[in-house]
Amino acid sequence: MTAVTAIDSQVQVDTDAAISVRGLWKVFGEDANSIIGSPEAHLSRPELLEKTGCVAAVRDVSFDVAKGEVFVVMGLSGSGKSTLVRCLTRLIEPTAGEVFFEGEDILTASKSRLRELRRTKFSMVFQHFGLLPHRRVIDNIAYPLEINGVGKDARYQRAREVIELVGLDGYANHFPEQLSGGMQQRVGLARALAVNPEVMFLDEPFSALDPLIRRDMQNEVKRLHKDLNKTMVFITHDLAEAMKLGDRIVIMRDGDIVQVGTPVDLVMKPVDDYVADFTKDIPKSHVLTMGALARAARADETVSADPVDADLIVRKAIPRIVNSTNPVGVVKGGATVGVVGRDDILHLIADDADEGSST
Amino acid sequence: MSTPTFVDTLPHWLRKRSSVIVIVLVVWVILATLLRGVDTLELSTATNTPVTEWFRELAASIRGSRSEAWIFIFVFNPIRAFIQGFVEVIRSVIAVPGSGDVIPVIGWLGVVALVGFIVYASSNWRTALLSMGLLTACGMLGVWIDTMDTLAMTMGSVLLSLAIALPIGIWAGLNDRFMAFIRPVLDLAQILPTLVYLAPLALVFLVGIAASTIATMIYSIPICVRITAHAIRSLKAGPIEASESMGSTRLQMLRKVQLPMARRTIILGINQTTLAALSFVVIAALIGAPGLGKPVIEALTIRNVGNGVVAGLAVVLLAVMLDRATTAAVQHSAEIPPEGDALIRRRIGLAAAAAATIGAIALSRYQLWAAVFPERLVIGSYIGNAADAVTDWITSNFYALTIGLNQNFTIHVLNRVEAVLADAPWYLTIIAISILAAIIGGRFVGVLSLVLLTGVVLIGLWNDAMVTLTQVLIATAIVMLIGVLLGVAAGRSPRVERALKPFLDAGQTLPAFVYLVPVLALFGPSRFAAIVCGVFYASPVVVRVVADGVRGVPKDMVEAAVSSGSSTTQVVTKVQLPASKKSLLLGANQGMIFVLAVVVIGGFVGAGGLGYLVIVGQSKPELQGKGLAAGLAIVLLGIVMDRIAQAGARRNEKQPT
Ligand SMILES: Nc1ncnc2c1ncn2[C@@H]1O[C@H](COP(=O)(O)OP(=O)(O)OP(=O)(O)O)[C@@H](O)[C@H]1O
Ligand SMILES: [Mg+2]
């Protein structure tokens, strides 16, 4: 999975991407339009608020999301994550910029085209679930099909399929208020899956759940992603969650994008102190792959017979290496890319420990 | 306070608003005493002024053009015909025989069964039984036909009101601009005393069913619009956003998301609309509404207490039935629908009830005992006689308590306040009120008071207006006293609240009109009787508002006070009351508006003032103009009082405490 990351809005849109965003702005407040392109646009958010009474929730944001990718948007509360994701499907009308879905300009799409896209291609999961309290679970899940004119039998059949998919068998006839938070969010997930969308937007879907259930649900999303291979834009303010789920992560601050990259990029090459501060508690051994750690074998080393995959996370490779004094070979697609020795891993863990003690 | 007022220019000790108010009051009382009897603009009832004369001519010309002017031929008369026809259909089903019939379509047994079935279908069998019992009791009071007429009028008005109010309310809930557009109308409707609609409507639509139905609708529609709009506006945003994200059209969103989610509150609105309509249908007997209002008015005008009590009791039973039935429907709508066995049981129950109802209706069409309420079962005359006897006994044995209380209160309180307001020169009163309005509510409210009160003078009914204002102010003061005492007690103790709840519920369900009968019986026709009615009617609302306010005071504030050694009195006076100041002011405002509505009706029980003129104008053609003008004066007075109280409450909100 590779993705073209175009940060420059002049660059040609990558038509292979599921979603491309160029120079997107959202300014809340009266006369928001006049701010784009004016000198005020360069003011920091508090300065802008002071001067014009407007809030720049999203400022000149550009990125691409590849098909099948889990793209995580991360940032502190108020950094503009929710606003950004709502701009992508125009639940919030952006102030300026461009958004493409498979090459199609979303922002100029007609109302009916937009509705069609929302009905068939996009779906969304919300922090507070957004279930309809007066409908049973099955009718909640069938709702997106219902408004699209799918007949009762067909939509119930599909609803039952997704109910099973998210592990809610037996709860079809319950009302949302009869379910726990975690189960309610499963309903939210099922509803989002019901139309078999191409892109799922998840806005802090698990923030309202307690930690154990949250971990369950994260695994659920990982499993669903593996099985269904949907493109996902996943919002969270929890770095561990971002690292666990994200193929790539974008970090936002006060409406700006600070850094886009893989979990490894963020941990190994933070662009500034803000990102470094975010990632400093993440042990490198938890994100680095063996491939990233691999080096050429030295002449005096004997490589042990059984090689490991380059995509394997270092932490998971520890049991393999702990009993051998010899380095293991690292292979990618059959070809050996290098070796990793016990010392290399110990150095890495020692680095983590150093940074841990300095906080 | 953002803008400096003249208060800021005064020396420090004078800047406190309360001390300024006291000074103005003292100066006012002294001047009023010195100038007593000068320029009071008193006018005998039979005298017309140029303005009332103009109103009389206007009324005459409207009457003359009923069959000629296009607005009547193409607008008013068709509306009248339609509404009359609509209500007559309902009446002919349950109340009066249609042309060529001897009994209504459904006799009493059928009606009782049908009501039971509807209530059962919309809630549960317990409420259904209660409703059937209450209806039968109305029959036993000997006023079955009047009860049915009132029920038919209420149903007709409610159905028509809902047909208009629900769409408007929904639109106002969805559209900010439309809401801003109709809000002033809703606000005005809330402060208009019921009595003032009647005369103008009777003039346009003739005395009778149409005019009384329209008057009832005008009264109940704003209530329904307000609650419906609120129901839509206060929905949680989450499901709506989710529904939008799935590509719902606006119509789908409304039908499948917003309306179902708002259903419970909307049904609550229907409950309120129904009770409002019932209480108005009783009053609308003044302009020809058939039903229980007629005997109540007769009882008031010829002082036939027995009949009035019986009819009033039937109104109460009907009100309780409608309230219980619609409240149960609200609860039912919030319950999770039954499933499996429970669902089957419910279906069997509904089928059986439907069969029984059809049987009862059939019986009531072919059996006399089921068609006409059997005379044997009627005990109304005993109750009437008993009420008469009790009244006689109380008035002769407790003279000191009833007439004595009345006289003492009138001499020592009423007359003194009236002396300041009504027996002083009009300009003194206007200036004093306007200055107080400016201090309490700001410059704008002061000027508004000046203008509107001058309007009352120009209409020529100044003195009567001040007589009414006196009663309103005194009754409001008493209501506030009761409201604070009981409200604080209820707010502090759940036990007191539970004990008070039935009375508060009853107070809010019962039509004001029915209070008049016993009060008149006990105290005789007097201004005092009107004040007592106003106090009875308005107290429950104020108690509720104050109790809510006291309960809303943050717990830790109270705990902090208690832990620092405050006595109970100190906690109440230093913490709970100041912290719930906003509720107190809101309560005062509500109380005043409620009191005004009743004090005006007090014209029936000898309260004089503007209400009396409205009622006299209804029966004496030469005074019709005066009645209409009095209605206008009531509106002006109501606006002044409401604006002062509202502005006072708002201003208080802004001040940091
Ligand atoms: N409708 C609105 N009107 C005005 N300002 C808004 C509106 N919605 C959001 N904002 C502002 O935009 C900024 C970004 O808000 P947003 O909800 O996108 O943040 P977030 O990153 O999702 O935060 P959280 O983690 O708390 O959900 C905030 O400063 C917020 O106050
Ligand atoms: Mg958010």
Give a structural overview.
The complex is a heterodimer of chains A (about 350) and B (about 650). Chain A is an alpha/beta fold and about 350 residues long. Chain A has 13 helices and 13 strands. In chain A, helix 7 links the parallel strand 7 (about 200-205) and strand 8. The two termini of chain A are about 35 Å apart. Chain B folds into two domains: about 10-55 and about 400-655, Orthogonal Bundle (MetI-like fold); about 70-390, MetI-like (MetI-like fold). By secondary structure, chain B is mostly helical. Chain B is globular, with a radius of gyration of 27 Å. Chain B is built from 29 helices and no strands. Chain B has helices spanning about 10-15, 15-35, 50-65, 70-95, 110-120, 125-140, 145-175, 175-190, 195-205, 210-235, 235-245, 250-285, 295-300, 305-335, 340-365, 370, 380-395, 400-420, 425-440, 445-460, 460-490, 495-510, 515-525, 525-550, 555-565, 570-580, 580-600, 610-620, 625-655. The longest helix of chain B has about 35 residues, at about 250-285. At the A-B interface, helix 3, strand 6 and helix 4 of A face helix 11 and helix 12 of B. The structure holds adenosine-5'-triphosphate and magnesium ion (MG).
* Count of DSSP H/I helices of chain B: 29
Quaternary structure of the protein:
heterodimer
Q: Helix count of chain A? A: 13
* Major sheet description of chain B: none
